[in-house]
């Protein structure tokens, strides 16, 4: 009996060690994602791209990146809508305040012109016109009428020639100048407002375009863990070693055609292991502007729903 206990413990320990080793192997064993990087030209010629850096990011980490980009884009869109709405309110205020002042000067100018004509008529034709005199004194008492005290004193003394000269040479020209300045002020304030609004909206639009650019959507940000990366060889072939799971592949490439540089951006979803992971092609279909759905496929609909930034 005493000899069997050590054997029992030794045997149990070996079993536990074997289970632990198997679990460790299953958990940390590397799978392969391999394939080629190539583009099909318009003439149907296939070009394999060498020295393209391919990154593998786990689906969960890629989703964190995706959600952050969506929040940033929605924040820009909300800021744009808010700025546009605030700009519309501010523009209405500018128009209303300036139009009120312009109307006031127009009313005063019309009154001054009528007073000028009345005073000339009283001076040259007939001073005994009670109805017109009543209108004259009502208009001279309007708030904001220039030189109203002096003109009123001359009118009370029946010095209509002096009233006429003051209205013709001073009051009417002063009101014409004020009206012109009011119109220019309105135009200037609206011009400044519209320029500031356009500048702010343009900056927001540029920020959105940058956030949604192919460069940004394939430049893995700090804080997002890269599971594996590798360069494609001279034949465009690559092989990544990753733990079992679901991944997004990100890559950027370019080539010179005559004097023009063509740039390519790829995002592809793949599971490892799978049939696709053993022949994972980065080609025309899974470019960012290709037909295949990818991590960023929902960004364009997001933009289309906000016509103000088009």
Can you walk me through this structure?
The protein is of the alpha+beta class and 310 residues long. The chain folds into two domains: 30-75 and 214-309, Immunoglobulin-like (Sandwich), CATH 2.60.40.1120; 80-211, no CATH class. It is 56% helix and 19% strand. It is built from seven helices and eight strands. The protein has helices at residues 4-28, 59-124, 130-140, 148-156, 160-211, 214-218, 299-304, and strands at 30-40, 46-48, 53-58, 228-231, 237-243, 245-257, 260-272, 280-282. Strands 1, 2, 5 and 8 form a four-stranded mixed sheet that branches. It has a four-stranded antiparallel sheet with strand order 4-3-6-7. Residues 14-27 have low confidence and may be disordered.
List the helices and strands and how they pair.
Layout: H1 4-28, E1 30-40, E2 46-48, E3 53-58, H2 59-124, H3 130-140, H4 148-156, H5 160-211, H6 214-218, E4 228-231, E5 237-243, E6 245-257, E7 260-272, E8 280-282, H7 299-304
Helix pairs in contact: 2-3, 2-5, 4-5
């Amino acid at each position: 009996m005493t000899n069997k206990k050590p054997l029992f413990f030794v045997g149990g320990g070996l079993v536990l060690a074997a289970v632990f080793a198997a679990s460790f192997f299953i958990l940390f064993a590397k799978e392969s994602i391999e394939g080629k990087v190539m583009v099909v030209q318009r003439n149907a010629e296939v070009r394999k791209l060498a020295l393209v850096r391919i990154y593998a990011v786990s689906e969960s980490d890629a989703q964190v990146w995706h959600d952050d980009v969506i929040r940033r884009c929605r924040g820009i869109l909300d800021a744009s809508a808010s700025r546009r709405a605030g700009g519309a309110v501010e523009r209405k205020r500018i128009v209303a305040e300036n139009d009120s002042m312009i109307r006031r000067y127009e009313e005063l100018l019309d009154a001054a012109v009528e007073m000028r004509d009345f005073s000339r008529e009283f001076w040259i034709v007939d001073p005994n016109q009670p109805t017109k005199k009543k209108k004259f004194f009502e208009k001279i008492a309007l708030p904001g009428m220039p030189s109203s005290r002096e003109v009123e004193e001359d009118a009370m003394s029946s010095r209509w020639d002096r009233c006429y000269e003051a209205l013709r040479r001073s009051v009417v020209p002063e009101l014409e100048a004020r009206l012109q300045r009011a119109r220019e002020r309105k135009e200037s304030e609206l011009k400044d407002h519209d320029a500031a609004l356009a500048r702010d909206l343009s900056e927001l639009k540029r920020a959105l375009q940058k956030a949604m650019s192919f460069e940004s959507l394939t430049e893995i940000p700090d804080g997002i863990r890269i599971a594996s990366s590798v360069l494609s060889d001279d034949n465009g072939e690559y092989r990544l070693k990753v733990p079992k799971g679901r991944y997004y592949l990100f890559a950027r490439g370019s080539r010179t055609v005559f004097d023009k540089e063509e740039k390519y951006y790829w995002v592809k979803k793949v599971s490892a292991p799978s049939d696709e992971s053993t022949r994972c092609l980065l080609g025309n279909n899974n470019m960012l502007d290709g037909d295949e759905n990818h991590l960023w496929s929902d960004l364009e609909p997001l933009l289309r729903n906000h016509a103000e930034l088009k």
